[in-house]
Design brief:
The chain starts with 17 loop residues before the first helix and ends with a helix. Helix content is 29%, strand content 26%. The strands form 8 sheets. It has a 7-stranded mixed sheet, with helices on both faces. By secondary structure, it is an alpha+beta fold. The chain contains 18 helices and 31 strands. Helix 16 crosses helix 17. The longest helix has 27 residues. It has 3 domains: 149 residues, 2-Layer Sandwich (Aldehyde Oxidoreductase, domain 4); 177 residues, Aldehyde oxidase/xanthine dehydrogenase, a/b hammerhead (Aldehyde Oxidoreductase, domain 3, Alpha-Beta Complex), CATH 3.90.1170; 323 residues, Aldehyde oxidase/xanthine dehydrogenase, molybdopterin binding domain (Aldehyde Oxidoreductase, domain 4, 2-Layer Sandwich). Helix 9 links the parallel strand 16 and strand 17.
């Protein structure tokens, strides 16, 4: 059966906001200037744990240019922020500090330089207490309690079948403990918020943020005003990757308190050091895996214990704990599974959302085990994965069954075919070579982590142009382009006649956070549904104009075309004008609600996500024996994306996610002092991949459509992170002839491995 031909869907189109971005016309929050604008800067604790005895702000108040200094005692609202319960993070610490870098006081001055200088004159008297700095410390009953409920932030179990019986049936068992480190978001634009008070008693917040409505709600609460008094406008945002949720709320609320009190605009824009020490990072992890299989490679049991370092506050640790739990078994048929996932409090910078959301950590461990199991069985690692890969109709780890859009086997077949084409390099005096593969899955939508509803509006003007409004944010991922393509395809108008509004909480519906690779799938479905309602008005009007009411009409190429007689066509602007004067609605606000999660909260058996993105990656590396330098010779990323909306945008997403995965696996490492302070809070000492480190990613898309996405599409923003990191680790392990069990594996680590190898 021939696939339907589309006009815009599946075509390589440029980003609708690309011109503004590349020419510098796009105005980011830090670019904004308003009459009378002031600048805010926070005084931060240098101690990771302690009781606040006093805060002396007198010198700061007297410093040049200072207009206001306040502490937690001056906040009219609850002095609490957080993504979800338990909402345990203070806006400004009052009684105790829980990590080095926590905000304690806030200074507002004429310039940022003056605000920063004055903040350094705030004197803190903190009585140090013993910090809890490691996972083992957090688990120790004798350790201090960071919060009243103890040091366990969140813990859940996933139970399928009987894992003890499964291991009793296994012929081969592999076990291992795997660790991952912190990772910094490293967006090109640090966090920034500007709050402008209005003459009508309202405030407008211009923010580089990920969840404008979440920002609005928290700020309203902390300034003691109803949400209707707060307007949030999302500025152009220079990357987020999960990092601009918590911090935007914190600095937005502080700036809002000052702006309301002073009646002047207040800007807060982080330095890079503030961005690193004062914002959420990727959760470090320690994961214990045990996998059992039959002699023929059939997986029979998997047992996993996941520990996540959540830092000082909950942030999104409960969500990340859940995501790690649900994905830890990988994209395989396993009848007996027991997984326990736990996040712990420590006296370090809090961990939160980061692209992949717990999946990269467990995928690294799971895919390491698959390679180890293949070696023990004497099987090809691709064959082992193919033998156990989920197929349509199979039950996954949570017992959920998908009868469509399960393309993991397809991705493995691509990897197998391409692996055969690789040049077979051999070790020589200078270089080692290794090839690694990985397979993974990533749940699309909020799923078990929360309700998933998106509101979208589509409006056609009488001139035939289209305006799309949606509450999901553009963070650089190209979602505005995808939404424009969907509306263009449904309504038959050229892409250049479609405008997708930037998010303004006064003008669009609350659509929840822009997370979980949900924009294309859930958000795109909302735009599709709204556009189809407008299409119905146009088709009905066109039928009347053709004097053929009810006859099939196609909207294409800016015309309404009578299907039975394609030469009969009317320009869409004429149809829209007639529809307007006839009274047919040309605007529709509709909602896309993902099917609800339905699962047992004790075993996590049930339906969790609307779909999964499945992927397999291939990485071939060369290691310099003298320097430890790694060169990626080839990287192939193959994902089942349901349906490609924009190949160019998809490739950009996969390349970007892959680079983050490469950084996680090879370069990026937050370093703490023995006292618990971050000591590499800059890009001179915290290494991130640059354009020179760009890996040669080849993108292959498998299209296995899902009925839950627009035109069958599934999100692809997060999955490449896990796929790349785990395949890279397996490639390094193959080259070294030794299993890498801790990420990142840096050049220095590689040299240590080589030194140990040479001693044997």
């Amino acid at each position: 059966m021939k696939e339907k031909e589309y006009s815009v869907i599946g075509k390589r189109v440029n980003k609708v906001d690309g011109l503004e971005l590349v020419t510098g016309k796009a105005r980011f929050t830090g670019d904004l200037r308003f009459p009378g604008m002031l600048y805010g800067y926070a005084k931060r604790s240098d101690s990771p744990a302690g009781m606040i005895k006093s805060i002396d702000i007198s010198k700061a108040q007297a410093a040049p240019g200072v207009h206001l200094v306040f502490t937690g005692e001056n906040i009219p609202g609850p002095n609490l922020i957080g993504i979800l319960p338990p909402f345990d993070q203070t806006l400004l610490a009052k009684d105790k500090v829980r990590y080095a870098g926590e905000s304690v006081a806030f200074v507002v001055a004429e310039t940022k330089t003056q605000a920063k200088a004055a903040a350094s004159q705030v004197t803190l008297d903190i009585e140090p207490t013993k910090p809890v700095l490691t996972l083992d410390d957090a688990l120790d009953p004798a350790s201090p309690k960071i919060h009243a409920n103890g040091n366990v932030t969140f813990s859940r179990n996933l139970i399928k079948g009987d894992v003890d019986l499964g291991f009793a049936e296994a012929d081969v068992i592999v076990e291992g403990v795997y660790e991952t480190s912190y990772q910094e978001h490293a967006y090109i634009e640090p966090e920034a918020v500007c709050v402008v008070p209005g003459g009508d008693g309202r405030i407008t917040i211009y923010a580089s943020c990920q969840s404008p409505f979440h920002l609005r709600g928290h700020i309203a609460a902390n300034i003691g005003q109803p949400a209707s008094k707060v307007r949030v406008v999302q500025s152009y945002t220079g990357g987020s990757f999960g990092g601009k949720d918590d911090v935007a709320v914190e600095i937005g609320a502080l700036a809002a308190l000052a702006a309301v009190k002073l009646g002047r605009p207040v800007m807060v824009s982080h330095d890079r050091e503030e961005s690193i020490i004062g914002s959420n990072l990727r959760h470090p992890s320690r994961i214990k895996y045990k996998t059992g299989a039959k002699k023929d490679g059939t997986l029979v049991a998997k047992q996993v214990e996941i520990l996540l370092d959540g830092g000082a506050y909950a942030s999104e640790s409960p969500f990340v704990t859940m995501k790690a739990l649900i994905h830890a078994a990988g994209p395989y048929r396993i009848p007996n599974v027991h997984i326990k996932s736990t996040a712990l409090y420590t006296n370090k910078t809090y961990s939160g959302a980061f692209r992949g959301f717990g999946v990269p950590q467990v995928t690294f461990a799971s895919e390491s085990q698959m390679d180890e199991l293949a070696a023990k069985l004497g099987m090809d690692p691709v064959e082992l994965r193919k033998k156990n890969a989920l197929l349509p109709g199979d039950s996954n780890a949570t017992g959920q069954v998908f009868k469509e859009s399960v393309g993991i086997l397809d991705t493995l077949q691509v990897i197998e075919r391409e692996r055969e084409k690789l040049e077979d390099f051999k070790e020589d005096n200078h270089y080692l070579y290794g090839t690694g593969i990985s397979s993974m899955l990533q749940g699309i939508s909020n799923g078990a982590e929360g309700i998933d509803v998106v509101g979208a509006s589509v409006q056609m003007s009488q001139d035939g142009s289209v305006l799309v409004g949606i509450g999901l944010t553009e963070l650089g991922q190209g979602s505005r382009t995808v939404f424009a393509q969907i509306a263009s395809e449904v309504l038959g108008v050229p892409l250049e006649k479609v405008t997708v509004k930037t998010v303004d909480t006064d003008a669009v519906h609350d659509s929840g956070p822009t997370v979980a690779s949900r924009s294309t799938t859930v958000g795109g479905k909302a735009v599709l549904t709204a556009a189809e309602a407008v299409k119905e008005s146009l088709v009905t009007m066109a039928g009347l104009m053709f004097k053929s009411p009810g006859a099939p009409v196609v909207l294409k190429d800016n015309f309404a075309i009578l299907e039975a007689s394609p030469e009969a066509r009317i320009p869409l602007d004429q149809v829209a004008t007639a529809a307007y004067w006839t009274g047919f609605p040309l605007m529709n606000l509709t909602f896309s609600k993902a099917p609800p999660s339905n699962y047992d909260h004790d075993t996590h058996q049930g339906d969790i996500y609307v779909a999964y993105n499945y992927g397999s990656h291939l990485v071939q590396v060369r290691i310099d024996k003298i320097t430890g330098e790694v060169t990626v010779l080839r990287h192939l990323a193959c994902h089942d994306v349901g349906k490609v909306i924009n190949p160019k945008g998809l490739e950009g997403q996969v390349e970007g996610g892959s680079l983050i995965g490469f950084g996680l696996a090879h370069m990026e490492k937050i370093v703490h002092s023995p006292e618990g302070r971050i000591i590499n809070s800059n890009f001179a000492d915290y290494a991130v991949p640059t354009i020179k480190d760009r890996i040669p990613t080849e993108v292959v898309s498998i299209e296995r459509p899902t009925s839950n996405g627009p035109f069958g599409a599934k999100g692809v923003g997060e999955p490449p992170v896990a796929g790349t990191a785990s395949a890279f680790a397996n490639a390094i392990s193959a080259a070294l002839g030794k299993r890498v069990k801790k990420l990142p594996v840096t050049k220095e680590d590689i040299l240590i491995h080589l030194s140990e190898r040479d001693k044997k």
